[in-house]
Amino acid sequence: MASIAQWVEGARPRTLPNAVAPVIAGTGAAAWLDAASWWKALLALLVAVGMIIGVNYANDYSDGIRGTDDVRSGPLRLVGSKLATPKSVLAAAAVSLGIGAVAGLVLAWFSAPWLIAVGAVCIAGAWLYTGGSKPYGYLGLGEVAVFVFFGLVAVLGTQYTQALRIDWVGATLAVATGCLSSAVLVANNLRDIPTDAESGKITLAVRLGDAKTRVLFQALLVVAFALTLVLMAATPWCAVGLVALPLAVRAATPVRTGLGGRELIPVLKDTGLTMLVWAVAVAGALVLSTTWG
């Protein structure tokens, strides 16, 4: 039986910045419109965290019962390592997604009820990533889904629920966040190219190959920081987002120098940290610019 520490590891806490950073960025975008609502931000955070933990457990379950995780160089998987039964991991996924869904229902009720439909699509996307008869994560579409759900939807959804509108600042933040969030998955799939190809999981990294996947990872980081410069058109204070650039360089170094296997695991942490620091810095700049002018 898995210990509590192993259940926590199975939730993949290194991916939590993918949930937290979009909410911070979206709240900063709402503050730019003088409409930040901290209780709505907390609800959005609960939605995002519930979703990402749920999708991580759902992936653990689906990949585990398919045998995809039988040979693995990445972090612990509960079903693949036989530390937990598929049924218990599926239940953990359902509980996590359920918590996110309830928080989403409350948020939609006080913002815009049509957002319930968006939430339903997000839950379906979480399950169908590696679940179902034709999981899109096995077709090279995982990065696209992460860009959409943990970039565009998460950031713009957070901004909209607070401000009841979106603008170009929110859209720019959403694209930049989507790029950084996708980069986390690219790094993960780069590490797993050999085992994924062997098990029939045809990720985007498997399709592109090792060399092009490394270029894609670095390009996503470049785009995110280029958009930080674009945000300076709103307020020069957004330049503070460049404080995360050294972290991005550290994240990219193992990728650029050709490291592989378990040597790429720290890249996930450093890319997530880059995204989190960047989101806090840029959102803080937007908040301060509206407060101090």
TrEMBL record:
The keyword Transferase applies. InterPro entries: MenA, UbiA_prenyltransferase, UbiA_sf, UBIAD1. GO terms for cellular component: plasma membrane. GO terms for biological process: menaquinone biosynthetic process; vitamin K biosynthetic process. It catalyses: an all-trans-polyprenyl diphosphate + 1,4-dihydroxy-2-naphthoate + H(+) = a 2-demethylmenaquinol + CO2 + diphosphate. It is a multi-pass membrane protein. The chain crosses the membrane at residues 41-58, 88-107, 114-130, 136-156, 168-187, 216-249, 270-292. Its EC number is 2.5.1.74. Conversion of 1,4-dihydroxy-2-naphthoate (DHNA) to demethylmenaquinone (DMK). Belongs to the MenA family. Type 1 subfamily. This is 1,4-dihydroxy-2-naphthoate octaprenyltransferase. It comes from Mycolicibacterium aurum (Mycobacterium aurum).
